[in-house]
Amino acid sequence: MAKLYFYYSSMNAGKSTTLLQSSYNYRERGMQTLVYTAAIDNRYGVGKVTSRIGIEEQAKLFDTKTDLFDEIQQHHQQQKLNCILVDEAQFLTKDQVYQLTEVVDKLNIPVLCYGLRTDFQAELFEGSRYLLAWADQLEELKTICYCGRKANFVLRLNEQGEVIKEGDQIQIGGNDHYLSVCRQHYKEKMGC
């Protein structure tokens, strides 16, 4: 029986690398995967999932208007799909997370979502909120703070490396704009 999985973490925990490895494992066994990534995230080019260690794969794009169930169902009717993988899943809408539950429940295709749990203000993203609520299985991918503890928060930095405490929830950036830290260093840097 298919399930909806949510693999979450702070930045630089290897979410995209894990997604790419999972897709490869399916394809190596002669199975078909369909990989999605957020249209808003163009850090490494448009229409591909890229890991920091240098591996990449082409991906279909989703934005807030994409009907994932409809797209996946049409693709599945043309060519059987064995697994759906979604990178940057924090950018999914509530409706899209529901659509992914329909892919699992009606089409019996496993869906593996990878994304951030919270933003730089420690608030849940919409996609993450509903994946945490509706996923059949949750798994935290771990990374470390500069002090060596588990990092489960993200700081946003300006060009001078100073912590930014306010702003829009979504600002695309990599290591030059964000730093994964433990709770203690998050509270210290944010002045909590």
Automatic annotation (TrEMBL):
Residues annotated to bind ATP: 9-16, 87-90
Pfam families documented for this protein: TK
Top-level class of the enzyme under EC nomenclature: transferase
Subcellular location, record wording: Cytoplasm
Predominant subcellular localization, coarse grouping: cytoplasm
GO cellular component entries: cytosol
Top-level taxon in the UniProt lineage: Bacteria
Matches recorded under InterPro entries: P-loop_NTPase, Thymidine_kinase, Thymidine_kinase_CS
Keywords: ATP-binding, Cytoplasm, DNA synthesis, Kinase, Metal-binding, Nucleotide-binding, Transferase, Zinc
Entry-linked PROSITE patterns: TK_CELLULAR_TYPE (PS00603)
EC number(s) reported in the record: 2.7.1.21
MF terms (GO), sorted A to Z: ATP binding; thymidine kinase activity; zinc ion binding
Similarity remark: Belongs to the thymidine kinase family.
Subunit structure: Homotetramer.
HAMAP family, per the entry: Thymidine_kinase (MF_00124)
Protein name per its UniProtKB record: Thymidine kinase
Organism: Gallibacterium genomosp. 3
